[in-house]
Amino acid sequence: MTHEQSRRERAFETLAIHAGNTADPLTGAVVPPIYQVSTYKQDGVGGLRGGYEYSRSANPTRTALEENLAALEGGRRGLAFASGLAAEDCLLRTLLSPGDHVVIPNDAYGGTFRLFAKVVSRWGVEWSVADTSDPASVRAALTPRTKVVWVETPSNPLLGITDIAAVAQIAHSAGAKLVVDNTFASPYLQQPIALGADVVVHSTTKYMGGHSDVVGGALVTNDAEIAEELAFHQNAMGAVAGPFDAWLVLRGIKTLAVRMDRHSENATRITDMLTAHPSVTQVLYPGLPEHPGHEVAAKQMKAFGGMVSFRVKGGEEAAVEVCNRAQLFTLGESLGGVESLIEHPGRMTHASVAGSALEVPADLVRISVGIESGDDLLADLKQALG
User: Fold this and answer.
1) Can you give the three-state secondary structure of 247-275, one letter per residue?
2) Rounded distance, CA 251 to CA 21, Å?
3) pTM more than 0.70
4) Contact (Cβ atoms closer than 8 angstroms) between residue 170 and residue 148
5) Residue among 8, 91, 19, 4 nearest 256 (CA)
6) Contacts with 14 (C-beta within 8 Å, 6 or more apart), sequence order
């Protein structure tokens, strides 16, 4: 049995701790060192020791993380970046040329929309919006120039669910690549490459890092040609993860499985309470049987994650007040940390989509459910709702 074969047969929890985490050959340290270095001594001109010459091109700590990312997503190659948007930028400039077309979801992270609407479009790339939870809507949005179909599932912030396998078939039949932002689910709950995705995107700032102490991004692919092109552009453009940031994400990943189990457990308890609360008009969570994407989510996800959105009576001001009254839930942007967060998407994370087809409801509140005591989280939300 080869090392690659044995790696693939190991359970996710084992890979999260061991993939890329080989003991330091010099000291035997069980945690990869932080190689806080910019350049490397060469063994003669052109004689690279271990393939390292300059840390933009490669760094041993980043290599450890990239090997880990590839293993967790079931990909051939993982690449770590300075942020999720840096990863997205590298991906788009690798896959697209002026005149190409992209299908983007009608419910996407505000930063992703801003990248398409304000940056990539100036480069001559066109985009159109589709409800990716409806395969027919994706098919209708395709043009002869479509090169990429972009999906978030679950989506941010409305927790929409896309059938990855169905949309992959539609994209591939049109000669387009399928990109899946797997940030909300994490590879522990969902494996897009196994379902047909060409590239997986992560903001490793979120669940992968898991402790609200690092900003990072990642790309994973199982396509050898795409992998080589991404690696070229990563080095050419240079928005790489620094060694300490890579080390922090690698450390966070080791507890990803147990954290996601607790996030999902707490979120389920909270959605049960919110569904019955008189001040709540709608709860958006794929774990709820009434969620329109519940059956697809149950098919392609291990559990339903820690992100919950809900709408409240009284409109925008009432939603803002719920956010302001929360105490244990910290008012703040981002998500996926061990601590619970609450925010008003319309005024915070998704302000950039105001007035567009992606505008979110003004009465919407989004919470990132942490791993604190479920009883304490329930009590805090109840008092915030009044």
Assistant:
1) HHHHHHHCCHHHHHHHHHHHHHHHHHHHH
2) 10
3) yes
4) no
5) 19
6) none
77, 147, 177, 206: the catalytic one is 206
Cβ-contact 336, 306 below 8 angstroms = yes
- Of 35, 109, 207, 285, which one is the catalytic site residue? 109
Are the beta carbons of 92 and 120 closer than 8 angstroms?
Answer: yes
pLDDT digit string, tens, across residues 81-109: 999 999 999 999 999 999 999 999 998 88
Task: Give the separation between CA 376 and CA 308, rounded to whole angstroms.
Answer: 17
Active site residue 56: yes
For the chain, percent of residues with pLDDT exceeding 70: 98
47 token code pair: 């004689």
Cα 366 to Cα 123, 151, 379, 386: the distances in Å are: 33, 20, 17, 17
The single-letter code of the amino acid at 319 is A
Q: Tell me what percent of the residues of the chain surpass a pLDDT of 90.
A: 88
Spatial separation of the C-alpha atoms in residues 242 and 245, rounded to whole Å: 5
Tell me if residue 254 is catalytic: no
CB 357 within 8 A of CB 275: no
Q: How far apart are CA 49 and CA 143, in angstroms?
A: 48
Contact predicate 83/215, CB 8 Å: yes
Q: At residue 137, does pLDDT exceed 50?
A: yes
| pLDDT tens-digit map of 101-130 | 999 999 888 899 999 999 999 999 999 999
CA distance 323 to 366: 9
| 206 part of the active site | yes
User: Whose structure tokens read 């002869």?
Assistant: 144
**What phi and psi, each to the nearest 5 degrees, are found at residue 203?**
-90, 105
**Catalytic, out of 181, 198, 245, 363:** 181
Using the 8-state DSSP alphabet, how is residue 129 labeled? Answer: E
Mean pLDDT score, 270-274: 98
User: Annotated catalytic residue: which of 7, 10, 56, 76?
Assistant: 56
By residue count, the chain amounts to: 386
3-state class (DSSP) for residue 80: strand
Known catalytic residue at 181: yes
What is the tens place of the pLDDT at every residue in 202-217?
A: 999 999 999 999 999 9
